[in-house]
Each structure stands twice: as structure tokens, then as C-alpha cells.
Amino acid sequence: MPILASRTLAVFILALTTSVLSPAVQAAKPKGPAYTSAADADPDFALQGEYLGTVLHEGQPMPLGVQVIARGNGAFDVVAYPGGLPGAGWQPPNKIIGTGQLEGSGAEAIVKLEGVDWGGTTRRGIIRNGAIVVVDEAGSELTSLPKTVRK
Fold first, then answer.
1. Domain limits at 71?
2. 14-28, 50-64, 74-88: lowest mean pLDDT where?
3. What is the count of structural domains for the chain?
4. Do both 2 and 57 map to the same domain?
């Protein structure tokens, strides 16, 4: 068999083996838990979702949408969208990306949020009682963004 033909055959066999084994390797990766109902999920799941309200920006009311993503074990990722939620008022590229951490337990539990906006300013909030309470540097309440469900 000529050298070129044997190399072509070797490459073909390698490609075939890789394509056949690839799904088996991916299937072997451990997956996190899957839940079929909110009642069975991690308690953080109840806080995950979208929040929407109005904040003052340069003296004018401005819609602000926030998406909260539960990561488990009391950790959260947060993205805030000036103008409203994506597809409902947000004008890219401005957004605030941050994190949150659950503090306390039961009815007293809160999630403290913090992120840096596009201008470098640190923004803070607290999730409690079904809303994000936006606070200033001193911890004084500026506004409340209730949890919302888009239809």
C-alpha cells in the first residue's frame, strides 16, 4: 500500500474513532442534580429570577431590570440592565455584572448583592421579601425592584 494511502486510511480511522467515542466520553461526565419541581430544588432557586423597577439616574426615573442566577450553596450571579430587561427596554452594551451571597437562614435570610457598573461605580442591593432593595454606600434604601414574571 502506498504511503499516502496508508496515511489517509490512518487519518480516516482516527477521525471515525474520535467521532464514535466522543458521545460516550461526554455521557460519562458527572452532571449536577436535576429537579422537576421548585419544591425539590435548592432553596436558592426561589430567589432566582428577574426583578424590575425604577431607579433615579441623573435626576430622572429610569427602568432597571435585574436577572439573578442561583449557583447553589448560597452563591448567586447578578446582571443588572439599565433601561429594562433584555428584550424589554435594555439598550446594550451597558450592564452591571455582580455576585451575591446568602446570609442568614429562614425568614431572616437575605442575599447581599454587589457589582460594578460600566463607569466603575460599585452598586449594592439586598434581596429580601420578594424584591431587590437597592442601597447607597451608607446602606440607605434608594428603591425597591419587585420580582417579576414575564409572560
1. 39-148
2. 14-28
3. 2
4. no
Three-state SS letters, the chain: CCHHHHHHHHHHHHHHHHHHHHHHHHHCCCCCCCCCCHHHCCHHHHCCEEEEEEEEECCEEEEEEEEEEEEECCEEEEEEEECCCCCCCCCCCCCEEEEEEEECCHHHCEEEEEEECCCCCEEEEEEECCEEEEECCCCCEEEEEEEECCC
Q: Based on the fold, state whether residues 132 and 65 are members of the same structural domain.
A: yes
Exposure class string for 124-144: b at 16+ Cβ within 10 A, else e: bbbbbeebbbbbeeeeeeebb
Q: How many residues are recorded in the chain?
A: 151
**Co-location of 49 and 83 in the same domain:** yes
Per residue in 32-64, pLDDT (tens digit) is 667 676 667 777 888 999 999 999 888 899 999
Same domain for 86 and 110, yes or no, is yes
